[in-house]
Automatic annotation (TrEMBL):
Biased composition (Basic residues): 78-88
Serine/threonine specific protein phosphatases domain ranges (all copies): 265-270
Reactions it catalyzes: O-phospho-L-threonyl-[protein] + H2O = L-threonyl-[protein] + phosphate
EC class of the enzyme, as a word: hydrolase
Protein known as: Serine/threonine-protein phosphatase
Lineage: Eukaryota, Sar, Stramenopiles, Ochrophyta, Pelagophyceae
Keyword Hydrolase among record annotations: yes
Length: 542
């Protein structure tokens, strides 16, 4: 240590005349080392003090820099445009919200929501591996050529040969064939599907080809077979949007291609009384679109053939025995006591009773040959809604009451939800049926998810989004489309993108809903409203 602190200019041999004395030299060296050591310690303290001052100055400069950066981003000129451009670019990515339930130390349950961007990767070699795996034998009469061709048309609907095909009688024949193939599959499925996660759950699509393209481009871009997870659609595929025929054809084609990965439930618009109501929906009615596309003779044939397929759709799905998925909501229990369809109905859960609904049922209009209790339960799966908080005091002892839709439809409150979840062992309800500007909403103590997968034709405004839900084991992740996202399929008639396109091609696109005179939601105020008008009151019974 003495050598490290000693300075050559202050060597004892050079500064003290008696340093040559061998008896005094060790004492002199020790005193000199002690002085040098004290001097070194003082210097270390000085350096530490200077370092602390520098850190304090750096913190001060950083604190001054933050408001300057914020003011630049909020001020006028180029920095604002750059920040806005960066913000919009980031919003183009899809967002996942992970909803988890944590149990606190006091035993209470807390819902935690985290937000993350999503992306997906897949190996091209996965396709080869999947093709080598044994597949489920396809029944006789099921051909892959037709659904494969329809899916190819959906991927590129703007090609001139495809727009011509979509307005042809050949397309009508293909829809009828798809409806027959898919209908036979639906008829063999249980009324309550039992699925395993991962599964993507979609709400109403309502003839919106544009938003359906968004999901296909971002969730099953490489094809359903290469997508990790199943696809579950909760109904309402037709009406309101101008591309109901394309949406139905595409979804039925996916079902025929991947019957164990694509699942379709029934919504209230998959009934004849609703999708045939031309007086109410006008050119947004599925029946009107069938007749407009294929003529007054062939059009009703296509409409009836598709509705015959709808009559066979399942009513409900349960994922991982915990997530109950349905179009509208839970049904009421039948009156107590033995029922004609089940002697011990009181010992059955409502999911077990729903599985007793006939596999072919019209619902609206009612089928008098089917037990009234089963028909009521099937109808309430399609039509019911969560009660708004103002309705809760007016609900009966079971938690049910009259819906704002009228027409004998019902709503369910906290008590009904609690009883249903305890009865079935489920933890959450995922449903559709109501428009929401954000695509997905939570209600009833975060026990009910409402998912809406179309952003148009429901008076939600220009900024409306569409969404779906990914259920993955113990996680529920919400995926929504940014309102800034735009694709290139649907255009206004005066759009610059149509310049140079022949008039006959523009007319064909207009016929199939790819060219519109105006976007109906441009002037909407974004106020949420129920899926169907109050004009339906007293038209559809429960």
């Amino acid at each position: 240590m003495s050598t490290f602190f000693r300075s050559p200019a202050a060597s004892p041999a050079q500064t003290r005349p008696d340093a040559a004395n061998p008896e005094e030299s060790p004492q002199i060296t020790t005193r000199s080392a002690r002085r040098a050591r004290h001097a070194g310690q003082d210097r270390v303290q000085e350096l530490e003090q200077e370092n602390s001052q520098l850190r304090a100055e750096l913190d001060r400069l950083r604190s001054q820099k933050r408001p300057i950066r914020r003011s630049n981003s909020l001020g006028s000129g180029r920095p604002k445009r750059t920040a806005e451009k960066r913000r919009r670019h980031l919003l183009r990515d899809s967002i996942m919200h992970t909803v988890e339930e944590d149990e606190g130390g006091d035993g209470s349950a807390n819902v935690r929501i985290t937000r993350n961007k999503i992306s997906r990767q897949a190996s091209i070699g996965t396709a080869t591996v999947l093709k080598q795996m044994p597949s489920t034998p396809r029944p006789a009469g099921f051909s892959l050529e037709l659904p494969t061709r329809v899916v190819a048309v959906f991927r590129e609907p703007l090609r001139s040969e495809h727009t011509e095909y979509l307005g042809s009688s050949q397309f009508a024949d293909d829809i009828l064939n798809l409806a027959r193939q898919a209908g036979r599959r639906f008829e063999r499925e249980p009324r309550v599907l039992r699925l395993e996660s991962p599964a993507y759950v979609f709400g109403d699509t309502h003839g919106n080809l544009e938003d359906l393209h968004f999901f296909s481009d971002h969730i099953w871009k490489l094809g359903v077979s290469l997508t990790a997870g199943q696809l579950l659609f909760l109904g309402d595929y037709v009406d309101r949007g101008l591309s109901s025929l394309e949406v139905v054809a595409y979804l039925l084609a996916l079902k025929c291609l991947e019957p164990q990965k694509v699942w379709l439930l029934r919504g209230n618009h998959e009934t004849r009384d609703v999708n045939g109501w031309e007086e109410h929906y006008g050119d947004r009615s599925f029946l009107w679109q069938c007749k407009h596309r294929f003529g007054d003779e062939l059009g009703p044939v296509v409409w009836e053939g598709v509705n015959a397929c709808f009559d066979r759709l399942p009513l409900c799905a349960v994922i991982d025995d915990e997530i109950c998925c349905v179009h509208g909501g839970m049904p009421r229990r039948p009156p107590p006591g033995p029922r004609p369809f089940c002697a011990d109905a009181d010992q059955k859960t409502r999911l077990e009773l729903l599985d007793m609904v006939p596999h072919v049922i019209t619902i609206n209009p009612p089928d008098n040959s089917i037990d009234a209790d089963l028909q009521q339960m099937a109808s309430e799966c399609l039509w019911s809604d969560p009660a708004v908080e103002e309705q809760e005091p007016d609900l009966n002892e079971t938690g049910f009451g009259e819906s704002l839709r009228g027409g004998g439809t019902v709503c369910f409150g906290h008590a009904a939800i609690k009883a249903f979840l305890e009865e079935t062992g489920c933890a959450f309800i995922v449903r559709a049926h109501e428009a929401h500007a954000h695509g997905v909403s939570l209600s009833k103590g975060a026990k009910v998810f409402t998912v809406f997968s179309t952003s148009k034709d429901h008076h939600q405004g220009r900024a409306a989004s569409c969404g779906c839900i990914l259920i993955d084991v113990e996680k529920i992740q919400v995926i929504t489309r940014s309102p800034h996202y735009r694709n290139h399929y649907v255009h206004k008639r005066n759009s610059m993108s149509l310049i140079g396109i022949p008039q006959d091609e523009i007319n064909r696109r207009k016929q199939i809903g790819l060219v519109v005179d105006d976007f109906d939601d441009d002037d909407d105020d974004g106020v949420e409203y129920l899926d169907d008008s109050e004009d339906e009151e007293d038209v559809f019974g429960a």
